[in-house]
Design goal:
With about 300 residues, the protein is low in regular secondary structure. It has six helices and five strands; from the N terminus they run H-H-H-H-E-E-E-E-E-H-H.
């Protein structure tokens, strides 16, 4: 029997007792300091500083590759179909529902499908792909080119390590990762609420991505002008050092159109709040939004 069906049956028996057993929105056990290994983006579920969540409860639902970076990057055998640094995640062809389909009259700029600097995030957060679906597993002979665009469960099942190997490869959506990671999740799992991270394929209730930044900006307009250029990015030099730092909001030039993407406001590796050694800004933001500081980086209101 599928292990998810076994869990579902057990949950029904418990919930049928009439008691509330939800784990609720538990705080993270990660330190959120120093390195991505101390954040929830460490999909091995092992803090690099030691301690933290055991991961053994998670191992049947996603492969523990025992390396933090490998869930997104690989030094060899990287994807050739996307322009992302040493990219190692499966990226399915997905059509998203965008603000252009909302029928709003207040949106003045065109919106396209998400660009590559959003698709990298959505490759997990849209829930269409298992969080452990990578192209090149650690070790030799564990590479499959077709994994770039199509998730092959037989390939993922071939991984083995000293721990418990995954028999189910969960995506960030209801019925999979969000079977336990919801306020009314499986009893005793100790799973924090991840529903805020479940973006799905309907993007109309989030800040638009793939939206063109107004080319007319600066004094007298509703938008600030980026201060610097680095490669295909335009960045707001928030600390005035003439360099694009991880804490700088940025825009991405995609074929001559400068756009807002997920990575404009979020750094998946974490940004310290007040310099090295301090806690990362919540939800991987580049700029905290206290007093709408993040919004006012781009918007003049």
């Amino acid at each position: 029997m599928n292990i998810l069906k076994i869990i579902s049956a057990a949950a029904l028996l418990i919930l049928g007792s009439g008691h509330a057993y939800a784990d609720g929105d538990l705080p993270t056990k990660f330190l959120n300091q120093g390195t991505i290994g101390n954040t929830r983006h460490n999909l091995t579920q092992r803090q690099t500083s030691g301690g933290g969540p055991s991961g053994s409860n998670m191992d049947p639902y996603r492969n523990n590759y025992e390396e933090v970076c490998v869930y997104c990057h690989t030094p060899h055998g990287a994807a050739t179909s996307v322009s992302l640094p040493l990219w190692n995640r499966t990226m399915k062809a997905t059509t998203y529902t965008t603000y252009s389909q909302l029928g709003t009259t207040t949106l003045t700029q065109p919106v396209s499908q998400p660009g590559i600097n959003s698709l990298s995030c959505l490759s997990c957060h849209d829930g269409q792909t298992a969080v452990d679906s990578i192209i090149n597993m650690p070790g030799s002979g564990r590479y499959q080119a077709s994994q770039e665009t199509s998730q092959d469960l037989v390939f993922l099942n071939a991984w083995n390590n000293v721990g418990t190997d995954a028999t189910v490869h969960g995506g960030l959506k209801l019925g999979e990762c969000l079977y336990c990671h919801v306020p009314n999740g499986f009893v005793g799992a100790g799973a924090p609420d991840f529903t805020v991270a479940e973006i799905g394929t309907d993007l109309r209730n989030d800040h638009p991505v793939g939206i063109v930044y107004p080319p007319t900006n600066g004094p007298g307009t509703d938008f600030n002008t980026p201060a610097g250029v680095k490669g295909t990015a335009r960045y707001f030099d928030l600390n005035g050092n003439s360099a694009m730092d991880s804490g700088d909001v940025r825009l991405y030039d995609t074929g001559g159109l400068v756009k807002v993407e997920c990575a404009s406001c979020h750094d998946p590796h974490g940004v310290p709040s007040a310099g090295p050694g301090t806690t990362f800004k919540p939800t991987f933001l580049r700029v905290t939004n206290t007093g709408s500081a993040l919004c006012l980086t781009c918007h003049v209101k």
